[in-house]
Amino acid sequence: MPPGQLSRRLAGVRYLKLMCAPLRCQRFHTVPRHYKGRTGAEHLWLMRHLKDPFVKAAKVESYRCRSAFKLLEMNKKHELLRPGLRVLDCGAAPGAWSQVAVQRVNAVGTDPSSPVGFVLGVDLLHILPMEGATFLCPADVTDPETLQRILEQLPGRRADVILSDMAPNATGIRALDHDRLISLCLTLLDMAADILSPGGTMLCKTWAGSQSQQLLKRLAKEFQHTRILKPEASRKESSEVYFLATQYRMRKSPVKP
Ligand SMILES: C[S@@+](CC[C@H](N)C(=O)[O-])C[C@H]1O[C@@H](n2cnc3c(N)ncnc32)[C@H](O)[C@@H]1O
Predict the structure, then answer these.
(1) Helix (H), strand (E) at residue 70
(2) 70 lines ligand 1 (CB under 6 A)
(3) Measuring from atom 13 of ligand 1, which residue has the nearest CA?
(4) Can you give the CATH number for the domain in which 237 is found?
């Protein structure tokens, strides 16, 4: 693609993201006046958002974002979260996955007969406080300083479950966005050696593409079981899939650069 065309395309994508950012991951059900002048693509996005049953359900059930239903479904099928577990939620803003984790690990101690778990969320963005969760924000998961802060917060300096719904800011160039997300997941997998307890679980979001096999291979080496999940709440037209890896067996040899 010629450089002029590429920069025009990127400027277009940036504009669209800027316009839609306040709407994403929010409980939003009416069309504000200032969106009246939107383009066709924005209009389509907004209409789909307003009709989305998971957006409506998130409002009814007081989840901060529709993505709660992705985790609820994956958790229902694969039992990732149970009372007493320590959870690290990477890319936690606005906090819907943390809400689900707080409930499932009994982080507030709502059920006195079950062990009390712990939820630590990390994000580049600010996250509103939540009972039962601790947030490190703004913080970049890939920053070595953040790793130290994570370890300081985790009881026993270990997590039993690492969740990652992280997504880098999309450029709209599919292959580039895919590479950036895979690289984020691989960095997190490197960090797992310091964070995740033996037998632990890692669930990470990816966008399907040419590097997915590389990540899957690494997960298969370091965990006993790996699966690819596409929950109902994940939009069919999205290339988003989740890799679930269970029974962490710790890294046997150093990661190749
Ligand atoms: C799809 S949202 C997560 C939604 C969240 N699971 C929820 O249910 O509320 C993706 C998040 O990943 C965060 N993110 C992307 N790269 C990150 C990084 N390097 N460190 C921390 N957070 C990151 C973004 O800021 C964004 O808030």
Answers:
(1) helix 68-78
(2) no
(3) 91
(4) 3.40.50.150
Whether 62 is in a domain gets the answer no
pLDDT in tens, 84-102: 999 999 999 999 999 999 9
- Whether residue 205 sits in one domain with residue 116: yes
Write the Ramachandran bin of 95: left for phi over 0, alpha for psi from -120 to 50, otherwise beta: left
Claim to verify: residue 35 and residue 151 sit in the same structural domain: no
Residue 56 belongs to some domain of the structure: no
What value, to the nearest 5°, has the Cα angle with vertex 11 and ends 7 and 13?
115
Query: Is the C-beta atom of 91 inside 6 A of ligand 1?
Result: yes
The predicted model scores a pTM of 0.85
Q: Which of 56, 59, 205, 252 is catalytic?
A: 205
pLDDT score of 198 more than 80 = yes
Whether residue 110 is found in the same domain as residue 44: no
Q: Would you call 205 a catalytic residue per the annotation? A: yes
> Domain residues for 144?
68-248
Count of CB atoms situated within 10 Å of the CB of 208: 14
Question: Is 123 in the same domain as 43?
Answer: no
As for how many domains the chain has, the answer is 2
Ligand 1 proximity of 96 Cβ (cutoff 6 Å): yes
Q: Residue 96, exposed/middle/buried by CB under 10 A (0-12, 13-18, 19+)?
A: buried
pLDDT at 228 over 80: yes
